[in-house]
Amino acid sequence: MIRSALIALALLASTAHAAPNTATFTHFTYEGADPVDARIKLGPGQYRNPILNGFYPDPSVTRVGKDYYLVNSTFAYFPGIPVWHSTDLVHWTQIGNAIDRPGMLDFKRLGLSRAVFAPSIDEHDGTFYILNTCVDCGGNFLITARDPKGPWSDPVWLPSVGGIDASIFFDDDGRTWILNNDEPPGPAEYQGHRAIWIQQYDPKAKVMIGPRTVLLDKGVDPSTKPIWPEGPHILKKDGFYYLTAAEGGTAEGHSQVVLRADTVLGPYKPYENNPILTQRGLPKDRPLPITSAGHGDLVDTPDGKWWATFLAVRPYGDDLYNTGRETFLLPVEWKDGWPVILENGKTIPYVAAAPKLPAPAVIPPPTSGAFKAVETFAGPELPLNWMTMRIPQSRWWAVKNGALTLEARPDKLGENAQPSFWGRRQQHTHASAQTTLRFTPKADGDKAGLVVIQNDDFYYFVGLVRDHGRTMMRVEQRKGPKDPTDGVVVAEKPISLVSSQAVNLRITARGGAYDFAYSLKPGAWTTLKADADGTVLSTKTAGGFVGALFGVYAHGGR
For 91-98, what is the mean pLDDT? Predict the structure, then answer.
């Protein structure tokens, strides 16, 4: 009996010891306002570009009656593929995430710029379709929903569809087709030599049927050795089939091109004045540049007008941007039977005349221009626009009573793991994020705080850390894979806190400079590190296809 009691006590002690430490965050405030927001004001009947600030790349848009739906890439973040709704193409409300269940996909330990590449969305006979590529985690797949808010089906895998950027086209003769970017029909002649393919799809049997056909090899002008034709879409208008695609890669050489055919299988003839959208070749010293435009999708309005969503970026220096690729909107003009988004040599406007469409009855929280967003963690779930890194296998967070609580788990930033991290996008080059933290680090290595991250190799952390038995307020930086996964200490200060004492944390971005501050009393900020090098968070330095996130993080247990 005594022995049994001792065993029970030992097990109880072991369980208590194993219980994870937790960090509690309250009142997360994001605020951003870029110089252009004050310099270029909106007039009556105008809208502002981008329509979705921050890391919202590869937009695909479709119309159902008077409603518009849009999706974006999210790569190895979860939940994935935000689904947006609008009635006027300007004001957008996120209504769901298509990838919102851990069992749908498996990102394993992929880099943050792998996994969920460019999605496309369409609707047919009351069913919504999203086609997507899980790069290095299964390939091309299709999911469906009767309601775009979800739930979305489990993936229907398309093993015979290779490459990336699949989309679906429902022809008026009842046939359904899937397009994609893939390897060329013969050996690649140079780096970036790709092709656009098409094959028929049977929606009832959920299988590909018939032969594959090449619609576009290399690009619209093969003599120039064009690279990366991708993001293909087909639309039908006035008896013609139009193939639109991005070309030139998703950097400063990016563009959108169009071809036309009499039949869905071609042959497709390119528009003589391609590209129909690009910012390449413009003066690099132009004020407030927008660059890298492409990956467009065209949509019509009930009154017969046409518009295009596409991605572009807003650099603060020489191709330096931390906010990722963003979603823009421009009208489409049809010229002699060809769609043109923007004439060559013209710059993308920050402000333009808005579509003459009905605004929503209730204006949603802003996604463009200067704005402030406060998250009070009312629960029981986080907002739809918050994401974590890769797919969680357990519920290590809680949202209730005005707080977000994270278990301080062994998984770390910098290890391509699934750390205790939740964040939201940095949507302005000039922005700040602040939160209130309650955390008691118990063992060396325990930490919790605020981070700004581009990927596992490039991030900043500010918060509480236990080191050699002392609690420190610390700023850590990781500026490449050769740095320790915990980063390098760039500033620190010993700090004494009573049990459950709150500490306020703030990160401020000013283009390529970041400031890190803390306070123990409201408004009494102490700057721990000013003018830290923010260019290490740029896509140019860090690489990849994502954008920076501000988020909260906790680590412990080893």
Answer: 98
The whole-number pLDDT of residue 67 equals 98
Which listed residue (58, 297, 457, 476) is catalytic? 58
Report the pLDDT value the prediction gives residue 499, as an integer from 0 to 100. 84
Query: How much of the chain, in percent, has pLDDT values that exceed 70?
Result: 97
Residues in the chain: 558
Which of 516, 542, 315 lies closest to 434 in space, CA to CA? Answer: 516
96: Cβ contacts below 8 Å, ≥ 6 apart: 82, 83, 148, 149, 150, 384
Catalytic residue among 34, 165, 230, 476: 230
Distance CA 138, CA 153 (A): 16
Closest CA to 183 of 192, 199, 195, 165: 195
Please provide the average confidence, as pLDDT, over all residues in the chain.
95
Contacts of 286 (CB under 8 A, 6+ apart): 347
Structure tokens at 482: 């050769």
Identify the CA nearest to 307 among candidates 346, 273, 252, 357: 357
| Distance, CA of 257 to CA of 246 (rounded, Å) | 6
Q: How far is CA 157 from the centre of its chain?
A: 23
Give me the mean pLDDT over the 193-204 stretch: 98
Q: What's the pLDDT score for residue 16? A: 40
DSSP state of 268: P
* H or E element in which residue 260 lies: strand 255-261
pLDDT at 464 exceeding the cut of 70: yes
In terms of Cα–Cα distance, which of 336, 348, 347, 421 is closest to 386? 421
Q: 272: exposed, middle or buried (C-beta count within 10 Å: 0-12, 13-18, 19+)? A: exposed
Reply yes or no on whether 58 is catalytic: yes
pLDDT score for 18: 53
Find, among 288, 313, 304, 281, the residue nearest to 63 by Cα: 304
CA distances from 297 to 72, 125, 269, 306, 313 (A): 12, 21, 19, 10, 17
SS3 300: strand
Question: Is there a catalytic annotation at residue 230?
Answer: yes
- Say yes or no to pLDDT of 286 above 50: yes
